[in-house]
Amino acid sequence: MSSVVFMLTAALLLFILASQLFDRATAALSVLAFLSIRDVAFAAADLRPYAPGIALVLASMLALLRLARKGRPGDAIIYTVSIAAVVHVHYLFALIIIAHAAYLWASGGWRTLRRGSWIILGVGVPSLCLPALPGLIDFAARRETLASPFGSKPYGILFVPILVLGVLLFVRTRSWADRRPLEQGTLALVSLWAIAPPLFLYLASAITDTNVFQARYALSSTPALAILVGMVLRTIPTRILAFGVAASLLITTTLTSRYSEHWVEDWQAAQRYIQTVSAPRHLLLVRAGLVESQDIGWLSDGERISYLTSPLSYYRVPGEIVALPFDASRDAVRFLETVSRRALDSGMPFVVVTNYSHVLDDWFRIRFATTRFEPSQRRDFGVVSVTHFRPQER
Predict the structure, then answer these.
(1) 294 near 362, Cβ under 8 Å?
(2) What span, in angstroms and rounded, lies between the C-alpha atoms of 290 and 89?
(3) CB 355 within 8 A of CB 287
(4) Same domain? 140 vs 159
(5) What burial letters (b/e) apply to 333-348, b meaning 16+ CB within 10 Å?
(6) What residue numbers bound the domain in which 30 lies?
(7) Beta strands in the chain (DSSP E)
(8) Cα dihedral 29, 34, 35, 36 sign
(9) Is 211 in a helix, a strand, or coil?
(10) What is the dihedral of CA 316, 355, 149, 153, to 10 degrees?
(11) Chain mean pLDDT for the chain
């Protein structure tokens, strides 16, 4: 629910931003285009910090416009706090700073900054971001865990620059809607905002052995892509037709979303069932499907376990929650064997909870097939599955 609220807030901030850069009609069309992006729907349904990150990115953009136009120390403070918040919420979303710098230069906004504003930016931004440095170092050290196990299509990087160039050429060859001149630096801001995050991720994936070229890590650029689409739709002579096209995009995306499985990730129903079969001394073995669980070291870290099992640990379920690895790889099997021995030695019933994939559920069924533990029929709650293993009297 909180992610939905953050995403609605992001939509509102996008409307305000696009209104300041263009006009209200372009802003409304941009919001419709934004809500039509499938990855936006994914972020709104996800507990991870993507939705608040997008909202903070847009807040920092509004703070940037105010700073570039007025240059007062108070505006510099607001911008400093907003960009530091982006860094703390999601390190990769901080790539928008590239677009910020380009806008200040292209718009001439850097000339309006007063001496006090420069001091605040030079001291405040590094000072507020410094506490995030240990986490950033750890983030870089565990970058392998960020790579999607499903891979990505490398030619996908071509989509963003082609879209940006296409829009720029389109706007150049046609008079802007109502012949309103664009503020200097606007195209530089929107273009680099759309290009910089996915381009950086693509280059990082090409240069290193870690595939981080994933849509969810480039979500910070989705508002810019929406604005580009809004700019094109705004040039349609008939406003009703323009909004009709935008509404059609939204309806089509809603009906054909490939993230439909996200809507049936029913952890609430799963925990109600667990309440009936588990007890405080029982083990709850949870595979929530977060890619960070590929790092076996995380499975023994108390603070990180709470993150890896957050979809279930959010509820007060009876039992001791144990985080399971992402899959049954060689290193993961050693961890699974340790957990299995613990379950066998306890002699108590235990519950296996998996999300999206049944690989671990099947692994435990095979592992305990020759023991006195008997698995119940798997209960599915959308893509969340629960299996109850009970010791049988011989």
Answers:
(1) no
(2) 17
(3) yes
(4) yes
(5) eebbeebbeebbeeeb
(6) 2-260
(7) 283-287, 320-323, 350-355, 373-375, 379-381, 384-391
(8) positive
(9) coil
(10) -120
(11) 83
3-state secondary structure of 380: strand
- Which residue, 17, 115, 107, 123, is CA-closest to 72? 115
- Dihedral over Cα of 107, 108, 113, 115: its sign: positive
- Name the pTM for this structure: 0.73
Predicted confidence band of residue 118 (pLDDT cuts 50, 70, 90): very high
Res 147 pLDDT > 80: no
CB-CB contact of 194 with 18 (8 Å)? no
DSSP single-letter state for residue 318: S
* Tokens of residue 241, six digits: 């037709």
Q: Are residues 256 and 317 in the same domain?
A: no
- Structural domain count of the chain: 2
Regarding whether 317 and 348 lie in a shared domain, the answer is yes
Q: Is the dihedral of CA 48, 330, 376, 379 positive or negative?
A: positive
Q: What is the pLDDT of residue 290?
A: 79
Distance CA 35, CA 27 (A): 12
- 48: nearest Cα among 214, 279, 177, 190: 214
**Do 282 and 360 fall into the same domain?**
yes
- Indicate whether 318 and 203 sit together in one domain: no
User: In the 3-class helix/strand/coil scheme, how is 154-206 assigned residue by residue?
Assistant: HHHHHHHHHHHHHHHHHHHHCCCHHHCCCCCCHHHHHHHHHHHHHHHHHHHHH
| Amino acid 312: pLDDT | 81
User: Is pLDDT of 154 > 50?
Assistant: no
